[in-house]
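Lab manual, section 2.4: Encoding a predicted structure.

Procedure: take the sequence of the chain (70 residues), apply the prediction step described in section 2.3, and record the output as structure tokens. A sample record is shown.
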Amino acid sequence: EDAVVLAEMLTSGDGVDEALLKFMARRFPRVKMVLDNSLQLAEWEIHPDSPGADPGRIMGQTLHALVAPA
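Recorded output:
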């Protein structure tokens, strides 16, 4: 996704600095969500008896979010 979005941003006609700022603004929330959810899943894998552990829910939410355009 990063490569496709970066190519789109760099060919938009904006300068490189502006394109990179827009790229970060566009990509950061999605990448952060994937990282945060992955870390939570890893924590639950290590401690499966954690109160509120619900890997299926967080995996479903993540996959649902990822079907939206990048």
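Check your result against the sample. The two ends are 7 Å apart (CA to CA).
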